[in-house]
Amino acid sequence: MQITKGLPLEEIQKVKIVENGEPLVEIRETERISLLKEHRYLDARLRKSAQELLYAVADNLPPGYKLLIVTAYRPIWMQKELYARRQKQLARKHFFLMIFQYPKWRRLVNRYTSPPGGSSHQYGGAVDVTVLDERGNRLDMGTALTDFGVKVHTENNLITDEQRRNRKVLYDAMTKAGFANYPLEWWHYSYGDRMWAAYSGKEECFYGPVVHI
């Protein structure tokens, strides 16, 4: 993995959507895929092709390891709640930036949580995931999935060698199956949407916001 800067939102929005109308389908638990069922923001659905790719991801993991799905599709109400939470979090963390340089603060918020209507989770092709070891423990990735800042970037100089290797286990399994990583969040992967297309060098994608289908 290489240190990769996130693309500007404007670049991602240039991707043309050619919607293919695939339905949302349930992610099924298997011996190698678990769902974080107690998570308030887990709607365990993805577009059909993205859902099918998860089973290839699980097969790409080392023996005994499991994929843990933390979040997948998000309806608009869910994204609104998550966006409001991120705004409050960054208002506390960067109060003076919010007061005196509001546009810069707003861009910071949008870097780590997309505004409602703009999240790839609403396209039905994105998942937030991590990996469980043979004992059912999460691999040490260096941060929680609710954190923000440089340390959550997929590749950075603030994590240990072990944490970097663990992230690579996830990265290799996901990208080999066809997902693309959002480089500012080690846990976020997508398929078929604008973010996937932008980071894969494609001009078109085939998933748009589910609410438009």
TrEMBL record:
Listed InterPro entries: A_A_dipeptidase, Zn_M74/Hedgehog-like
Pfam families membership: Peptidase_M15
Residue positions of the active site: E185 (proton donor/acceptor)
Top-tier EC class: hydrolase
Cofactor(s) needed for function: Zn(2+)
UniProt binding sites for Zn(2+): H121, D128, H188
Gene Ontology biological process terms from the UniProt entry: cell wall organization; proteolysis
One Gene Ontology molecular-function label: metallopeptidase activity
Keyword Hydrolase: yes
Catalytic activity: D-alanyl-D-alanine + H2O = 2 D-alanine
Keyword field: Cell wall biogenesis/degradation, Dipeptidase, Hydrolase, Metal-binding, Metalloprotease, Protease, Zinc
Cofactor, free-text remark: Binds 1 zinc ion per subunit.
PANTHER family listed in its UniProt record: D-ALANYL-D-ALANINE DIPEPTIDASE
UniProt similarity note: Belongs to the peptidase M15D family.
Function in brief: Catalyzes hydrolysis of the D-alanyl-D-alanine dipeptide.
Record-given protein name: D-alanyl-D-alanine dipeptidase
Organism: Candidatus Zambryskibacteria bacterium RIFCSPHIGHO2_01_FULL_46_25
